Fold this protein.
Amino acid sequence: MGSNGVAEGDVASPHPRPAEDAIVGANVQLQGAILHVESLFRTIDFYTRLLDLQIARTSPNAAVLASRTGVSTLALYEREASHFTDRTVQALVWHVSTLEALDEIDQRLKDLGARVLKRRFEQPLTLLSTRDPDDQRLLFIYYEGDIDIPEDIPSEVFWY
């Protein structure tokens, strides 16, 4: 046990988990990401409809989307990406705190016409994988447990 009270090999989270009764902002969490997109309008429409994000700032070729609480943000910049390797992000991974919220995201993705792969694992962990309109990979993960990161991470998380 180290001086910080964490066993060797474990990673301490500097951010405590939200209280059980914290509804707003507690179901889906991503601090922020910056994405280069082909169509700013199309991408804004996708993320506002999928995750209820709001337009916080906008310019002719860029926008910042934020959750109602301002916790999760996506900065979008419109530019042509001629090759898949022009991306610097392999995937955006969202932690979903309830199975009901994951089911709602699954339904919203289907309503948006997205192809969705949903898989349950033994841990118990449920992984939902899809792509946004710019072919950016999105992962939504729900797992039961008291830790921030599941002990066994399925290899599907790392697939392109």
